[in-house]
Design goal:
This protein is an alpha/beta fold. It has 14 helices and ten strands. Helix 11 links the parallel strand 9 and strand 10. The protein starts with a helix and ends in a 6-residue tail after the last helix.
């Protein structure tokens, strides 16, 4: 079955009532808050558009975060997807009020058990605050040309990335946090010199299959969501490069047909762009959904949300976007949200203090291991050089 066949299935399958689909389009959106504050404009946005979730990009305090998530949930009635992107490391958002955790790479160097513990600690903190979805783990392969992001990957070996990714996912699952693997089908091989607007991956299809795609081949059945890459892939769109989030060949042909993924494909509308032109949020949204994305991350601004929804309605009315495709996305979203529970809005100080101690103990253990590894390497070098050893 080809990607084109998937489009044919949309046109010939049973049509959902356009009015019902149009009224539910907000469920396709997750609004991204730059500042974690409850404001009148944000409350009106939630009431008016009824998005499927909210994504907090920064945190202030544990108490204010819990209260904000509870207000969002109450306003949207059915428990929404409440997102955070936390993988450890010095820049993690939980660091606003909790001790810093080791990075993915540091934990991976200690093995899957350490990675699982990292995921479990992050999951515990997210659950305590009221989150239910983590935009993690990163499943990209480390690249020598991207040293600045190396700490945010598990490594360069595809099988090791898959093993550590599975451990991290299991850690989150123990605390009932949904995982969203990123960035499908892999950003580790972006060509040097690619423009910021549309990075390009030039690997052959077979090479991608055995390298960048290996973690996804192993882990897709365990991932309820995947965040689609903003890069273009010559192996799938050679003549006219498209961001993966705009590519039917990648989303339908590869993800749905070849890999048989049944979860939610997520696009960050703030980033996905086409090669030939800068696109407004509305056109980005329409292209992403037409290509096969189910959920869109958009800025929590009235103009951005309204632009996305207006473009989707226009695409449905014109026949460019089949209503049946939207209905399938809505069904996937409703099914996932059935497992969610509403946050309480409260954080027990004793629980937060206990979690802070667990963060510190885990990080201290990583540091002790670093020191021990350093001593062993240093002693080994001294033995090889014939230097006397001090007991």
């Amino acid at each position: 079955m080809t990607a084109a066949a998937g489009e044919d299935r949309d046109r010939t399958g049973g049509d959902a009532p356009p009015e019902r689909v149009s009224n539910s389009l907000g469920q396709l959106l997750v609004v991204k808050l730059e500042e974690s504050r409850w404001t009148g404009s944000f409350e009106r946005l939630l009431y008016r558009h009824r998005p499927g979730g909210a994504f907090l990009q920064s945190l202030r305090s544990a108490e204010s975060t819990a209260e904000l998530l509870a207000k969002i949930s109450r306003t949207l009635e059915a428990p929404p997807l409440l997102w955070l992107a936390e993988e450890g490391g010095k820049d993690g958002p939980l660091g606003a009020f909790l001790p810093p955790l080791p990075s993915l790479r540091t934990a991976a160097e200690r093995g899957p058990s350490a990675v699982a513990r990292l995921g479990e600690l992050i999951g515990s903190a997210m659950k305590l605050l009221g989150f239910n979805t983590n935009c993690a783990p990163t499943l990209d392969l480390a690249s020598p040309s991207e040293q600045n992001v190396a700490a945010r990957t598990f490594g360069s070996d595809p099988r090791e990335v898959a093993r550590c990714g599975e451990a991290f996912i299991h850690g989150l699952c123990r605390r009932r946090i949904l995982a969203c693997g990123k960035h499908f089908p892999g950003l580790g091989s972006v060509e040097a010199g690619s423009t910021a607007r549309l990075p390009v991956v030039g690997k052959a299809m077979a090479q991608l299959w055995h390298e960048d795609l290996l973690p996804y081949r192993d882990l897709l059945p365990q991932l309820p969501l995947v965040l689609v890459s903003h890069a273009a892939y010559k192996a799938y769109d050679f003549d006219v490069p498209h961001a993966a989030a705009h590519s039917t060949n990648i989303l339908e042909g590869l993800l749905r047909v070849k890999l048989r993924y049944e979860g939610l494909a997520v696009a960050d509308v703030a980033r996905a762009e086409d090669a030939q032109e800068a696109l407004d949020p509305g056109e980005k949204a329409a292209r992403c959904v037409k290509a096969g994305c189910n959920l869109l991350l958009v800025e929590a601004r009235e103009t951005s949300v309204e632009s996305a929804l207006a473009a989707l309605r226009k695409a449905i009315d014109s026949g460019r976007l089949p209503a049946a495709r939207i209905e399938r996305s809505l069904k996937r979203i409703r099914l996932l949200r059935k497992v969610l529970t509403a946050p309480s809005g409260k954080v027990a100080k004793t629980a937060l203090d206990q979690l802070a101690r667990q963060f510190e103990d885990f990080s201290r253990g990583m540091n002790l291991n670093d020191c021990e590894h350093g001593r062993q390497s240093h002693n080994g070098a001294r033995r090889q050089s014939g230097e006397p050893q001090i007991a």
